[in-house]
Write a structure and sequence with these properties.
Shape: elongated
Strand content: 15-25%
Structural class: alpha+beta
Helix content: 40-55%
Distance between the termini: 125 Å
Strand order of the largest sheet: 9-8-7-6-10
Radius of gyration: 48 Å
Largest sheet: 5 strands, antiparallel
């Protein structure tokens, strides 16, 4: 706490230096020939820090702690001088040190004060000593000629100090502990306070830890007996955040029973507050984890595995919010202006959002893919020119495993914009085949094939009968084309391939039974042989143009001799 007072004094000195620099700069600018402006001299800065209520209280406590009674008297609005004023200052210090509530961080640090009394704007309340009908400790703003307005302890408060001193001086903790623990100081801090910090505080946490170790096996046996499961672990009777909470409650109880100095009470009260806030945030985070586990089990039970990624993101976001809330509560407890902290968080959030724009875009895309259920883990999808099975849907990307066992990742922002074909979501599969029969197939054989294939499809219960269509559609370039069209009910792509294989084999049997066969891609070539008087053998006659013989040869048939088969 003494270091805090020194820092406050340093801030005051730094402020005075800045004001002096500004005044000097203004004076120099006036000398340099700038247009003259009406002079507004800076109000004189008080070297004792009495410009605000907080500065007055902290400055007085610091001066008395150093036993500088001459400086301490300067904070009192009294007509007493000499030894009487020093005695009054010491009594006030004891009264404040023993009975003032811990609220130093809540004192106003503004020159106009916190205005607790609307009818008395020149007075500010430091605290109330005693219970019902206690005495208000008040500082008042006094106009000192040449020194400006200063905040001093009011004369009414000083009149009640002797009586308060008689009550406060009888309950000092220093009277019940060994004297060397009080007199021995390390850095102006009594030894017994250091022992309480470095020995007492760990003991307060160690005791509930030992109790937890003793009670956990007993609770484990009861749990296994009730649950009839020998594999259940021992529960934590006193989890770590609960131990911290018990430690904070113990500190609060000790503060209510033991009279410590104001600075010690300020420290231990702040310590208990920080421990309480930390334990509360820890408990809330553990509760978030328990809720996440319950929701995750339900999502897995309903087959919504992809939503677990969003659940984990939501849990982390809530944990972060609890953490930020805990930090803000701590800052508020210690009197820090939250407006500046929230402004900094807003600016930091904007900077992070701009820096992680692509990542946030992928996260938002992943959330939309998961909640829209465009794809699910295990679905067979086709993205652009690649297809495969969805292996994992993350917050940043989706991993797809191809048939050749490679894995390619698609950013969720792109997955939400590209053309995506989900093969696994088909309600029925399209069986579409083209039979190409040889031209030697007769009309009767064609009719038998058409009827047989249609009957084969209609008799299969896995084929939608209303969709069956078997038609002779065209005379192709090298075959007679028959279209086979139907829809097949199948659970997935693998089952469809099995059904399709069986149907294709049945169609082959129907074609073979009809005495027909499948056509191969072929081309008919006509070779012409011509004999004319006076013409060379094997040449065409340009005059007569009479064709003596023709013959069709398949493309893969070999031609002997001069390439012409003669009649």
């Amino acid at each position: 706490m003494a270091m805090g007072h020194q820092k406050a004094s340093g801030v005051c000195l730094l402020s005075a230096g800045l004001l002096l620099f500004c005044a000097t700069a203004s004076a120099q600018s006036g000398v340099s020939g700038s247009p003259s402006v009406p002079a507004h001299p800076w109000p004189p800065q008080d070297p004792l820090g009495r410009a605000t209520p907080r500065g007055t209280v902290l400055g007085f406590l610091l001066a008395e702690r150093k036993e500088d009674h001459e400086a301490a008297v300067q904070y009192l609005n009294t007509r007493l001088r000499g030894e009487a004023a020093a005695t009054l200052a010491h009594q006030l210090y004891v009264v404040l040190d023993r009975g003032l509530p811990v609220r130093l961080t809540q004192l106003s640090n503004r020159p106009e004060g916190s205005l607790p009394f609307p009818a008395r704007p020149d007075q500010d309340l430091v605290g109330t000593i005693g219970g019902d009908g206690g005495v208000d400790i008040v500082v008042e703003r006094v106009d000192r000629k040449g020194n400006g307005s200063l905040w001093l302890f009011s004369s009414k408060t000083l009149a009640a100090v002797p009586d308060l001193y008689e009550e406060a001086n009888t309950i000092a903790v220093e009277n019940v502990i060994p004297e060397f623990l009080v007199r021995t100081r390390i850095g102006h801090v009594p030894l017994f306070e250091l022992l309480a910090l470095f020995v007492g505080l760990p003991l307060l946490y160690l005791i509930p830890t030992l109790v937890n170790r003793m009670l956990s096996p007993i609770a484990g046996r009861i749990r296994r007996h009730v649950g009839k499961n020998a594999d259940l672990p021992n529960p934590q009777v006193l989890p770590k955040p609960v131990r911290l909470m018990l430690m904070a409650l113990t500190i609060r109880w000790v503060l209510s029973k033991v009279a410590l100095s104001l600075l010690a009470r300020e420290f231990w009260s702040g310590t208990a507050a920080v421990i309480t806030i930390a334990a509360s945030v820890w408990i809330l985070i553990l509760c978030n984890g328990a809720v996440e586990n319950v929701i995750r089990r339900r999502l897995v039970r309903f087959g919504q595995n992809g939503a677990t990624s969003v659940l984990r993101l939501g849990r982390r976001a809530v944990d972060f919010l609890w953490l930020v809330a805990g930090i803000l509560v701590c800052l508020h407890y210690f009197g820090v202006n939250l407006t500046a902290a929230l402004t900094g968080l807003g600016i930091g959030g904007i900077a992070i959002a701009l820096a992680a724009q692509k990542t946030l875009e992928n996260v938002i895309g992943g959330i939309s893919v998961i909640f829209d259920q465009t794809v699910r883990v295990g679905d067979r999808v086709k993205v652009s020119d690649k297809d495969g099975f969805v292996e994992d849907i993350g917050l940043r990307s989706t991993r797809i495993r191809t048939d050749d066992r490679t894995v390619f990742s698609v950013p969720n922002s792109q997955l939400a914009m590209v053309n995506l074909e989900n093969i696994s979501l088909r309600d029925k599969f399209w069986f579409h085949q083209a039979l190409r029969l040889r031209y030697e197939t007769s009309a009767s054989a064609m009719r038998a094939i058409l009827g047989g294939v249609k009957t084969c499809l209609a008799q299969d219960t896995r084929v939608e009968r209303s969709s069956v269509r078997v038609r002779f559609i065209r005379f192709g370039a090298s075959s007679l084309d028959v279209e086979v069209f139907a829809y097949i009910f199948a659970g997935d792509w693998i089952q469809f391939l099995e059904i399709q294989q069986k149907l294709l084999l049945d169609i082959m049997e129907k074609v073979q039974r009809a005495g027909a066969s499948m056509a191969l891609p072929s081309q008919t070539v006509y070779l012409v042989s011509s004999k004319a008087p006076g013409a060379a053998q094997g040449a065409l006659s340009p005059v007569r143009g009479q064709v003596e013989s023709t013959e069709a040869l398949s493309q893969n048939e070999s031609i002997a001799g001069d390439g012409v088969r003669k009649p």
